[in-house]
Amino acid sequence: MTATAPTYRTGFAVGAVIIAVLALSLGDAIIKATGLDLPLWQMYILRSALVLPALWWLAWRKGPIAFTSLFWVILRSLLLVAMWLSYYSALPLMPLSLAAAAYYTSPIIITVLAALLAGRRPAPRVMLAVVLGFGGVVLVLRPDASGFDLAALLPLLAALLYACAMVLTSLKCRDDNPFALALALNIAFIVAGAGLGLFSGQEGSFIFGPWQSFDLALIGTVAALSAVILVGSVGAAIAYQNGPPATVAAFDYSYLVFSLIWGALFFTELPDALSLAGIAIIVLAGFLSLPRGKSVTA
């Protein structure tokens, strides 16, 4: 088993995931700020169309654009498109920091999935992390049984989809060109945007709103989102290809810190004491789920 164990560059992977979540959290803040003016389906098409030439060039520089398994690459792309659809749909309905807290149960899910797929039972501290993480989410969302908002489930669904995609990246797409993986993802975004666009024209809809005419502000927004998706999609692929999934997932939690910063700066969204306590518990759960000692490469 030692001979077949993957060789990781954990420090490199951790740096890549922190840069990726910094970019993605900023992109999510931009989308929340502009979502009422730019429908999601149009954003999918414009953002990815703008970044495709750069990704194609970057992928081509590393050699022929090919995949070890096209099936797994397509499945990974579909999972991530569905993840972002779920998460972005939640942003107009709840504060950015709270949506991020619910979404960032994903590192716990990644840790459990990685352990189960490796054929071993999660350690007791990992199970404790799951319980603590769930408790943190309850503190953040504080569901009211008399009027529970189903929108609160959207970031949790996004967390599950993201966890599946990142474990898949580590297990099935580890040897693929990360720029090619990002290229495939952005092609999937364009296809998904075109599909959602078939139902467009609904005034006031964040997802199916009518096509917006171009102006300088819109061009600037799309350019910023394209830069974000370039850094975020490539960085996430590199991180999960080069580091143990559970370890990289724990540093994914830096998104929560960035989301608090953007929420305060852009939207004056200051979470209350209970929400902050819940976020702290979720972060603690993530670090509890970190593997110990030699198991860090598992």
Mean pLDDT: 80
Given as residue ranges, the uncertain stretches (5+ residues, pLDDT < 50) are: 294-298
> What is the global morphology?
globular
What is the strand tally?
0
Strand residue content: under 5%
Helix content: over 70%
* End-to-end Cα distance: 11 Å
Q: How many structural units, i.e. domains?
A: 1
Characterize the main sheet. none
Would you list the SSEs in sequence order as H and E?
HHHHHHHHHHHH
Structural class: mainly alpha
Helix count equals 12
Rg for CA atoms: 19 Å
Which labels suit this protein?
single chain, 298 residues, mainly alpha, 12 helices, 0% strand, disordered C terminus
Write the layout of secondary structure elements.
Layout: H1 10-34, H2 40-61, H3 70-90, H4 96-103, H5 106-117, H6 124-141, H7 153-172, H8 178-197, H9 216-242, H10 245-251, H11 254-267, H12 273-288
Helix pairs in contact: 1-9, 1-10, 1-11, 2-8, 2-9, 3-7, 3-8, 4-7, 4-11, 5-6, 5-7, 5-10, 6-12, 7-9, 8-9
Tell me what the structure shows.
By secondary structure, the protein is mostly helical. It has one domain. It is 70% helix and 0% strand. 51% of the residues are buried.
Short description:
With 298 residues, the protein is mostly helical. It contains twelve helices and no strands.
